[in-house]
Design goal:
The chain has 178 residues and is mainly beta. The chain has one domain: Beta Barrel (Porin). The chain contains one helix and twelve strands, in the order H-E-E-E-E-E-E-E-E-E-E-E-E. A ten-stranded antiparallel barrel has the order 1-2-3-4-5-8-9-10-11-12. The protein starts with a helix and ends with a strand.
Length: 178
C-alpha cells in the first residue's frame, strides 16, 4: 500500500510542475523492463523498474530523482522503492539510493551509467543489501533514442539466507525526446 501511495505522490509532483522538455524511454530485455522520464535540464524525473529472474524472483517499483546538467555531464540523483521477492534471499521493500550519469560524447552519442545501492540491514524490510548497476551507449537522433548496454542486479541475503543475482546481461532501450 505504501508503494502505491509513493507512485501517486511521484505522479502528482511530476504533473504539478511546469511542463518542460524531457526524454522518455522504454528499456526492454528478456528479464528487465523500465519506463523513465529524464528532464533535459534541471528538474524532477522518474523511473519504474521491473526485473525478474524467474516467475518467483523479481524486483519492481518506482523511483524519483533530480536531474542536474553540468556541461557534457548530466547527473540524476535519487532513490527507488522496490518490492523484492526471492525464495533464496527473502521478500520485502528495498530503498536503494544512487546516481545515474550521462556523458555526451557528441550531438548523437553518449555513454550512460547508473549505480543504486542499499547497504545490508539498512533501509530494508527483511532483506540484506541490494545493488543495481549498469552501463550503456546511447544514440540520439531526434526525436528517437536508442540505448544498448549491460545491467547487473543482486540481492544479498539476511539472517542466514543466501543472496541471489537478479540480472546480469544485455538490454536494449528505445525512447523519444520532445
Amino acid at each position: 500500500m505504501k508503494i502505491g501511495r509513493f507512485v501517486v505522490a511521484c505522479v502528482g509532483v511530476l504533473l504539478s510542475g511546469s511542463v518542460q522538455a524531457g526524454n522518455y524511454a522504454v528499456f526492454l530485455s528478456e528479464k528487465y523492463q523500465n519506463f523513465s522520464r529524464e528532464p533535459t535540464g534541471t528538474g524532477l524525473g522518474f523511473t519504474i523498474d521491473a526485473s525478474h529472474r524467474r516467475n518467483d524472483t523479481y524486483a519492481i517499483g518506482p523511483g524519483l530523482g533530480l536531474s542536474v546538467p553540468l556541461g557534457a555531464l548530466s547527473l540524476f540523483v535519487g532513490g527507488k522503492a522496490l518490492y523484492i521477492h526471492s525464495p533464496a534471499a527473502g521478500k520485502g521493500v528495498a530503498t536503494p539510493v544512487g546516481v545515474a550519469a550521462n556523458v555526451r560524447l557528441s550531438n548523437m552519442l553518449s555513454v550512460s551509467s547508473r549505480l543504486f545501492y542499499t547497504p545490508k540491514a539498512a533501509f530494508n524490510s527483511r532483506l540484506g543489501g541490494y545493488v543495481q548497476t549498469g552501463i550503456g551507449v546511447r544514440m540520439n537522433v531526434d526525436p528517437a533514442i536508442v540505448e544498448v548496454g549491460w545491467r547487473y542486479e543482486r540481492i544479498a541475503g539476511r539472517n542466514g539466507a543466501s543472496g541471489q543475482k537478479l540480472l546480469n546481461g544485455p538490454y536494449v532501450g528505445l525512447g523519444f525526446t520532445f
